[in-house]
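Reviewer 2 asked us to include a model.

Predict the structure of this chain.
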Amino acid sequence: MKENKRSLRSYALNFALKNTAGGMFSAKAGRPDKLRLFVSNYLEKLAKIVDGVQLREGQFENLPVQWVSVDGADKKKLLLYFPGGGFFMESPRAHVGMVGRYLEAAGISGVIPSYRLAPEHPFPAGADDCLFAYKWVLEMGYAPEDIVVAGDSAGGNLALVTLQQAKAEGLPMPSCAFFLSPLFFF
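Predicted model (structure tokens):
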């Protein structure tokens, strides 16, 4: 039987996570308020923003959003991006660097909604906010064929749920969607 040995890389990653996150993701420290504070104090500061990316805060009624644009973007086309965070923490600001790279590659603009979080706002509050954001961009005049819906982790799950709800309501579907490690429940 082959012995499974840990690599030097796995030891280095383990050391780095223990010394930067300080156990924030352990079961003992997993209070949402502590994790959200960690994200805002640490992870948001690590977000690298691509040169030429502009940010603008906005609102879809009571839903806060981050508008993200890049130089030379087609303003008629839009990426609606839902950030991950286990449904109880999310940070549009921490995702701006990654989203900015997508926008730069596609030559389009983007918006990142800040949906309501559990446990203060149980399911389906976050999913409702994401569907509301999709309806809002349609009402703003974006043509469905000019919209891309995407998300990562819990945000990927919310993007999928948004598309399911939109279809069930008879709304027009976006041109495409992509999901980065969407969180699924069975």
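Helices lie at 8-21, 32-46, 92-106, 125-139, 154-168. Strands lie at 53-60, 63-70, 74-82, 108-113, 147-152, 176-180. We have added this to the supplementary material.
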